[in-house]
Design brief:
The chain contains 22 helices and 4 strands. By secondary structure, it is an all-alpha fold. The N and C termini lie far apart (about 65 Å).
Length: about 450
């Protein structure tokens, strides 16, 4: 009896299991070959995780902190507690979570399009080099991407029907994503507002059912955030719902070194003065105030920064996740982005049907314009871009000769891969072109 149940489950979940195991085995290989020392933000997460394990709380340098939400540090401390202090354990757990993300993308694509597009999207996620390299890093990017993607899945399930179970899971997964990185805190409310406008427009559901379900989402979403905010109030005697690094992030995004190097904290007079302020809250307020002052007094420069933020956000040269400080051509993203743009063009007249995966893309891009545009900040939306890329491939295979389309896709992939192999020359060429255009 049990054997029959297992066989039925395997048969019904065949595509999901195949995608998961392909994704997992590739990621395990990448998890095992990473040996370089921690750097940058990785050191912060590592230190705070060890402090949590040692009973010092979420702290750094002997002081409690709220610089960024504690979700990833708690995750690290939990994995260390179970498996010991081994980076390989972190990377393997991240490999499992990222493989599950590929399955979730398969299900979203299948729901929005069809089985064929779903399988293509899942496989593309499974082999996407950007995701494979991210698994190696001790950073929250991989985890947050999973929770953003699964939140979108439950938004799709929740919309129109407003079942309590879907509302609870949407609120829960969105909250976990925010506790990993605060940047998507507004996204769940955008989901709710989108459905509210749909109800007003279409009048297909009772407004009372929607509001009850929306309240459930907000309550569940708030559950982890409220105790964290209370803790911060006790520490700082100020309202800090999520993090105290917003001032630093804002100031750095409008005053990048050399006017264009995002992701690096400037070493100017304002930042040096800020470092003298002991309170994280007061430091953030000071930098936020200085940012507002700068924006109001330098409107032309601020507008020119939008171009740089756009270029950095959509850059196919990566110097963080792939490059360790050196620019590396992201051949996988270049391949995906071109196909996703084609998919968006083909679907332009029906784009409202795919709002669930368009909104996260638009949201993260607008956020990059306000804060900093870096390639790794694009990573949470690449699963959704992959869905559009998968649709493009399916569309081309259906409309034209399969042999010709397959050949052209392979040619396009190998062109990008060849550019990746000759990255140093490409990097120099891009810099020369951008300098001649007076962009760099």
């Amino acid at each position: 009896m049990e054997k029959n149940i297992i066989l039925k489950f395997i048969k019904s979940q065949k595509a999901s299991l195949i995608i998961f195991f392909i994704a997992f085995f590739i990621r395990v290989v990448f998890a095992l070959i990473k040996n370089s020392p921690l750097s940058g933000d990785e050191l912060f997460y590592e230190t705070t995780a060890l402090n949590i394990m040692s009973g010092y709380g979420y702290s750094i340098g002997g002081h409690l902190t709220a610089r960024i939400p504690p979700g990833y540090s708690i995750f690290l401390s939990f994995v260390y507690y179970i498996f010991g202090h081994h980076f390989i354990a972190i990377r393997i757990v991240q490999a499992i979570i990222d493989a599950l993300m590929c399955v979730v993308i398969y299900r979203i694509a299948r729901k929005l399009f069809n089985e064929k597009v779903g399988i293509l999207a899942g496989i593309l996620c499974a082999v996407h080099y950007f995701f494979l390299k991210a698994v190696q890093l001790i950073r929250p990017d991989t985890l947050q991407m999973f929770f953003i993607v699964i939140s979108v899945l439950y938004w799709i399930r929740w919309k129109g029907k407003f079942f309590k179970k879907d509302a609870i899971l949407l609120g829960l997964f969105s909250s976990i994503a925010v506790m990993l990185k605060a940047n998507i805190v507004i996204m769940p409310f955008i989901f709710i507002l989108t459905e509210f406008f749909n109800i007003i427009k279409n009048k297909k559901a009772k407004i009372s059912i929607f509001f009850k379900s929306a309240i459930i989402i907000i309550l569940v979403f708030s559950l982890p955030i409220i105790p964290w905010a209370v803790r911060n109030y006790k520490v700082y005697h100020a309202f800090v719902p999520l993090a105290t690094d917003s001032g630093t992030a804002l100031y750095s995004s409008y005053n990048p070194p050399e006017g264009k190097k995002f992701g690096i904290i400037p070493d100017d007079v304002v930042m040096r003065d800020a470092k003298k302020i002991k309170s994280e809250v007061e430091r953030s307020r000071y930098l936020t105030s200085k940012t507002k002052e700068y924006v109001l007094n330098n409107k032309k420069k601020v507008m020119s920064l939008l171009l740089y933020k756009t270029l950095f956000f959509w850059s196919i040269l990566d110097w963080e996740t792939l490059g360790d400080g050196k620019g590396v051509y992201n051949f996988s993203s270049a391949f995906i982005l071109s196909l996703s743009i084609l998919g968006l063009i083909i679907l332009r007249k029906r784009i409202k049907h795919f709002v669930a995966i368009v909104i996260p893309i638009v949201y993260m891009f607008l956020l990059a314009l306000i804060f900093q545009g870096l390639p790794r900040f694009r990573m949470p939306i690449e699963p959704f871009l992959i869905i559009f890329a998968a649709f493009s491939i399916s569309y081309l295979l259906h409309k034209f000769s399969k042999k010709i389309v397959t050949f052209l896709l392979l040619v396009w992939f190998f062109i990008n891969f060849t550019i990746f192999l000759y990255t140093p020359y490409v990097y120099k060429t891009c810099r020369i072109i951008m300098k001649n255009l007076q962009i760099w």
